Amino acid sequence: MAQSKLVTAVPMSHSTSICDLPYELLVHIFTHARGTDIVNLMCTARHFYQFHQDEYIWKLLCTRYNAPRLDFFEYPNLTYYALYSGILHTYGPLIGLWAGDAPFRGNIFEFRYIPQGIIGEVWRFPGPRLDHLQTNLEKTTPQLPTYFESVRITLSSSSKTDNSSSGFEPCVTWHVYPENQHWLQDPCERPSLHVLSPTQQSYQVYITYPSLEEERAIDSRRSEHPEFPPSSHAVWYDGGRDLPRLRQETSPTYDDFNAVKMRCRYHEEVLFGAKTEHVKPASLAIFPPPHVADRMELHAPPFVGLSDMREVSRGSCMSSWEAGHSMRYYPLRSPDIPDSPEVDPALPEWKPESLEGLWFAAAWTNCTEVLYLEYVPGERKVIAWKITGNVCVPRGAIAWQFSLGSDVDVGSPSASVFRDLPSTTRIYHGEMTESYRGFFSNYHSELTIALPTKDDIYFRVGNKQHVFKCRRYRGRNFDIEQEAAAGIRKPVPQLLL
């Protein structure tokens, strides 16, 4: 029987760790790591602390949030380390557009850089008006929004004296409209930014009406308010963007249906909170304080014609009402539009996927709504999703859709309203979603849609002679904006002719 041999491991002369890598290689690794990972690594060993003075690394992290050059900001002696550690590490993910889930109307919140730091502005389009108070041009032409400043994140001198301090720390201030146009400094009186966990909380509509079968009886129905976003794979939902680096808080869920049935009056349409099977992703949220909750219309635009019976229990600044009814925002995709032949429908190289992105659409007396166009290759179909909506067809619903296989000849009677458009215009048949108030009994109307240029869409509903217009959103044009009042910027002109 052969003897077994004892194998003895020969110790290495020295162990190797990441600390032994050359400085240049470590910097190259940092260029591919997440900002949080870099910061955490610097906290693990004294060897990595030397990197906190390397401006190249902090400049790299700042450029990930499209930060401008240091001389753009008004702070003397500002460094990229101070900019990143003071504001961008926590609030940098805010930069860009966010879609709000306010019932029916929705909302858009935009964060951008200013010399003082970061500003958050709410888009507000002209609200629904009576038919006789608008011209046909205003009803059929989209308008640019007015921008209301809501929150500002700036740098203030830090009270820390340790070597790791950048000398700055973030300062968050709020602007409340319209009754109280001033900055709120008291923590008990101002709103606050939060990050909420995934939730099954949603909205539904309950309606009571006279029974058609029994005299003096009342029938009732429930209507599902569109989920927003409909899934984490929604085309407009930018899942690649991070949320602000704030502690994620649990989202409470509640169902008010039983209470609504007891309190709902005869022939009433009611919005209430309900729990659904659909799980919406984590979100940015704004909690209104108790003292000014009724003045947060900027983030929760009112809807006319329905009773709001979501349960209200206002207590402390972090009450269950605020967590349940807070204004949730989700990262809104805003794709770059290339200037190439495939974007122009007048050219044979045109590709329908070039339509994807944000569009401003005229909505008759509901003024302007924001749509996100999606192209579905397998069905060769273009779908317009509502990012903002109205009390009949709310945000999250499909506004209209058309198939590329439904071409309309330019000389046909249904295309006669487009006779003034170029002969190269592409025209299709489609369908538009319409509904009664509360999104009950939604139905589809025939739609004729025309694509004359890369940035314009025209459509006609049924046999109506009015032609509505859509205009592609290519970003803000600050050159045409004027300061209408403190914290309010308004483009001139607003009509997108």
What does it look like?
By secondary structure, the chain is mainly beta. It is about 10% helix and about 35% strand. Strands 1, 2, 3, 4, 5, 6, 7, 10, 12, 14, 23 and 24 form a 12-stranded mixed β-sheet that branches. Strands 15-16-17-18-19-20-21-22 form an 8-stranded antiparallel β-barrel. A 4-stranded mixed β-sheet has the order 9-8-11-13, covered by helices on one side. A hairpin with a 6-residue loop joins strand 1 (about 95-100) and strand 2. Helix 3 runs parallel beside helix 4. The longest helix is centred in the first third of the chain and has 12 residues, at about 80-90. The chain is globular. The model is unreliable at about 1-10, about 180-185 and about 310-325 (pLDDT under 50).
Q: What is the count of helical runs?
A: 7
- Measured by DSSP, the beta-strand proportion falls in 25-35%
By helix and strand content, what is the structural category? Answer: mainly beta
From the N-terminal CA to the C-terminal CA, the straight-line distance is 97 Å
The tally of beta strands, per DSSP, is: 24
Task: Summarize the biggest pleated sheet.
Answer: 12 strands, mixed
Arithmetic mean of pLDDT: 82
> Unreliable stretches, pLDDT < 50, 5 or more residues?
1-10, 179-183, 312-324
Helix content bin: 10-25%
Please tell me what the overall shape is: globular
Based on CA atoms alone, the radius of gyration comes out at 27 Å
